Amino acid sequence: MALYDDELKEKVHKLPASPGVYQYFDATGKIIYIGKAKNLKNRVLSYLNKVNQTGKTQVLVRKICDLKYIVVESEQDALLLENNLIKKYKPKYNILLKDDKTYPWICIVKEPFPRVFTTRRIVRDGSEYFGPYTSARFANTLMGLIRSLYKLRTCRLPLNTRSIADGKFKVCLEYHIGNCQAPCVGRMPEEEYNDFISQIRNILKGNISSVIVHLQRKMEEFASGLQFEKAHEVKTAIEELRTYQSKSTIVNPGLSDIDVFSYIEDERYAYVNYLRIIHGAVNQVHTIEIEKKVEEEKEEILAFAIYEIRQMMKSASKEVIVPFYPDVKLIDIQYIIPKIGDKKQLLELSERNVAYFKLDKDRQRTLKKEDSKFSILKTIKTELKLPSLPHRMECFDNSNTQGTNPVASCVVFLDGKPAKREYRKFHVKTVEGPDDFASMEEIILRRYRRVLEEGRELPDLIVIDGGKGQLHSAVNSLKKLDLYGKIPIIGLAKRMEEIYYPGDKDPYLLAKNSVSLKTLMHIRDEAHRFGITFHRQLREKPLTKSVLNDIKGIGKKTEEQLIRHFKSVENIRKASLAELAAAIGVSKAKIVCEFFNGES
């Protein structure tokens, strides 16, 4: 063993008993391991004197041919230096953070009338960045909430007071469809716009209560000034914020600005979960997987993970909840191991998260060794607690536009793959107006009454696109057909991808990277796509059938070209021969012109 050579052994005995970082080199002069120590001499000597070393550690020791060290002032400095050197040199035997993703941020651009959007690239131009969000879905949900509450501009126009006053810009489609209040033409004062930005900044920081208080004052002002329509808009915004707040708040709102870490490990991997708590709500969640290369204590790994995650999340919290004390205590941080109360509840939540993450990672590694098709079905059966493998899954979705042309769709997946020949479309016949619940009840009744009458195969799982209301309606129909309890049925709500079971008060949440959840989302999205396509065909049919179908010599493809190019029959009627010829050719253009001239 190289480390037992006399020359190297003498070098080890001359090491200082101070905090520092040591580096091991192999015969080629390459760094193979970097470590930190409270006492450099004792730490490195332990590699020579330890008897029951693991196989990986023994391999490392045999390859050590030289060492270097750096003395630092404190344990914290040693931790920081070790972390930076590991990132720079990536030694073979150091723990490996299996996480090299670029996470999304929400950016408030530094400009007049700031834009707000998600991005994965940080530009050092004075703009504000909030995050990172380890779940892109969560970042998009947050942006969806912001866009529903505040009508901000999305254009890149160089707005300023002078250019707006000079009338250099015109309103765009976003204004006409109600997504923007047109600050570009002075229809929204900069002061009011900046008030919106201030509220958004508070939401992103987790200070939702202060935003609600501010909006309540504005609502009262509008109501006092008899501006009831604006007061109602603010009231709707308050209700949306309260709903979002109630879903995210898990403990006493008085607990604010706290980091929570939990830890779990097996022989090969360690897992650390992180929760960021603001006003009793989980503001950020992240879990990392660390591959262990040599024998390292859990206290060392936790210290490494805490520094790494806090740096990644830009956290400056002074209070950190941990399951046990890490081997390095960072300056200005108070570590807490809670025994009871809200803080204990937070630690338990983090521990559940890291346990689910480990379970999911173990499952993923197992799935790679099995047949992919049936392993997915087995996973769905296990995670959704189904009585049998879901070989046949059917999903239903409703579609209507303010109650017009109400339709529904049913898609079928066989062994986890779409069976498009078995897809079905439905016209809603007995429901008037936009009533999704009644529509779902009708469609489920019609679908499975016919399946029973024709003696066809019943599904192993029914998926309803929606929450408790749609699920309850579908269950009513199954009860009428005496199928309730014989076919598993669930609802999948869009906002947070929550799964609802009949009779359960609270939803069931799967991990965001769960194979089962991804499959259910695929089925749901396919049902939505199929239903929307059918609904669009119904809406467009009157535009073409009433007039264009009567033109002899003009086929279906030409009709589609005309509608796509001119957008409406009225525009086609007004078009000149040259304009028509540019779209469909001269000969067909003459036919269309002659038809409309004869019509007039």
User: Helix fraction?
Assistant: 40-55%
- Mean pLDDT over all positions: 83
The radius of gyration computed from the alpha-carbon positions, rounded to a whole number of angstroms, is 32 Å
Distance between the termini: 100 Å
Give the uncertain stretches in residue-range form: none
Distinct helical segment count? 20
Number of strands: 19
Please tell me what the overall shape is: globular
Strand content: 15-25%
Sheet with most strands: 7 strands, mixed
Structural class: alpha+beta
How would you sum up this structure, described in words?
By secondary structure, the protein is of the alpha+beta class. Helices cover 46% and strands 18% of the residues. It has 20 helices and 19 strands. The protein has helices spanning 6-13, 40-49, 55-63, 75-89, 136-149, 161-165, 173-176, 190-205, 208-224, 228-248, 298-312, 341-367, 372-383, 436-454, 468-480, 515-545, 556-566, 569-574, 577-584, 586-599, and strands at residues 20-25, 31-37, 66-71, 96-97, 105-108, 116-119, 128-130, 258-265, 269-278, 281-291, 319-321, 334-336, 392-401, 404-414, 417-418, 424-427, 461-465, 489-493, 498-500. The strands form 4 sheets. Strands 13, 14, 15, 16, 17, 18 and 19 form a 7-stranded mixed sheet that branches. The N and C termini lie far apart (100 Å).
